[in-house]
Structures are given as C-alpha cells and as structure tokens.
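Subject: Sanity check before I submit

Could someone independently write out the structure tokens for this chain? I want to compare against mine line by line before I put it in a report. The sequence has 342 residues.
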Amino acid sequence: MNTLRTAMLLAAMTALFMGVGYLIGGSGGMVIALLIAAGMNLFSYWNADKMVLSMNRAVEVDERNAPEYYAIVQSLAKRAGLPMPKTYLIDNPQPNAFATGRNPQNAAVAATTGLLQRLSHEEVAAVMAHELAHVQHRDTLTMTIVATLAGAISMLGNFAFFFGGNRDNNNSFGIVGVLVAMIVAPFAAMIVQMAVSRTREYEADRRGAEIAGNPLWLASALDKIARGAERIRNPDAERNPATAHLFIINPLSGERMDSLFSTHPNTDNRIAALQAMARDMAGGASAPAQRPSPMSRQADEQQPSGPWEKAAQQPEQQPAEPARPKSNPWGRNPTGPKGPWS
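---
Independent answer below. Compare away.
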C-alpha cells in the first residue's frame, strides 16, 4: 500500500510539473517538462542522499570516532530488522536529526552534535528509531523526490514571468495560464510537499516509538528538540530550506506554527499522540497531560531492553543522577576522545 501511494504521489507531482510546462509553453512546453521531470527523478533517485548530506556538511562516523552514537543506531537497526545504515554526524549546536537514502540498503541517518549533547541516551535512541522508521517506510526517497519536483515547479513559475504568454508557444491560455503557472502551481506543489511530510511524521513517530520501546522517550526528545530549535539557528538548513522537511523538527527559524504552510505537525500534537500511545501500551495507565519532563533513572529501569540495556542493568555502578539530566548526559564527548573533525 505504501508503495502504491508513493507511485501515485510521484505521478501526481509529475503531472503537475507537466501542466505547468503546458501553461507556459503549450504542448512543446509539456513535453520538455516531462523530460525534465524524468531526468530529475532519476537524478534524485541515485544522488539525493549525497546532496542532502553535503548541504548539511555531514561527516560519516563509525564505532571508532563515535562509539556510543554508532552503537545506538546499530542496535536499533537490528531491532527494526533493517540493514545497518551509514551513520553521519553534523557539527551543529541545534539538536536535530534526519534520514535519507533511496532504500533501506542504501540509507543514511544523521544527527547533530547538539542532539547528542542535549538529550539523554534514551532520548537519542528514540530519535534515531524515528529516523529508522522513515527508512523502513521508504519515506526518505519519496520526500526527497517530492521536494525536488516542488522546487522545480516553483522555478518554472519564475520562468513563466519571463517566457510565458508568447504567442508563438502554442499556449492557448495566454496571460491567464502564465498567472496560474506563476502563482497557483508553485502553491499547489508546496501544499503537496508539506502534506506528505506532516502525514509521514506521525507514522514515523508511532513506528519509532515501537522500535525504541517507550513512546515517552520520543515525546521527551521532541519537546527538547523543539525548544532547542527555537533558540538555536541552523545556518546550513537556512541556506537550503528545501531540505527542512527531512528533519525530525523543523530547523528553520520562524516556522513553528501548525498551519497549512508548516512542514511538520505541531510538536504538542505529536507529543499528545505519543502519550496516548504510551497509555495504550500500558493498558490504560494514566500518563502526564503536560509536556513530558526528561525521563528519570527509575523510569529508565522499567524499560531495560534496547541499546541502553547494559547501563540500565548496572545502576549500582553509577552515582545517583538528578531527575533532570546534565547538559551532556553522556558524561564526555559523545564522539569519543577524538571526534570526526580531529
């Protein structure tokens, strides 16, 4: 079913792209738009992941230079029944993460240093489980291609201002068609792109919570990431806003409203859905109505399975921790004594 929906979505975006070409250049413009759309789809299929990672200056890491982070992804991938994705780190203080890749066999996940420094071990695991859910659902390819086509349609709308309305282009719509191409078509493409992103975020939240084992860990992580994104700018994302919908929380400044124009669902709504999921998993036990606070050690011990299992089983070897974790709950540089930029 997911594959069918993806195919229908891409067909609709391609048809919209061709329609804009027709409005600008008539039948010849439609053919040209079809060829461009086919070429962009092929290029995006093979190179979209490399482009996104390069735009965000992500650096690949492994068990040597990011042992704890890499171990979390490795354990979660095994729990989800997925191949181990390539693991990247972004030197950015804003807490955030995203996944990319054309299929589970060629997937990559990336987290910022801010995410590792500001979130607890369990919260990081929940975030990466969310990203692996995107990989499992094959959202990464769909969302990247949709973003590419949406950007191209907007570009055609700009071209319409300069090249549309020519009497020799077989365009029977004249100036009306040019206006539609300039205004309505890019707007429609933007709406499709954002609707796709918001729907799939809810699905990834649910599946990610199942992989991690506790929906409240992801709820707490979303709260921290949203508050961090409000305070800390992400210059790379600001320069490349077309990739914003790939992140778990919108990394752009001034884009927090749960409106028709937001690329992500409202964070409070996502947290509420995860809290409801936690109550269902607990058999109707009550959950906090307010935004969740960071998980305490006692709550961690109630869910010992997962990549944090070893730490949870040996609490006597650790000093007592306060209810609110330190700014760097890993206790040291999460990328190891020598980070990937050393």
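---
OP: Matches mine. For the report I'm noting this point. The chain has a mean pLDDT of 75.
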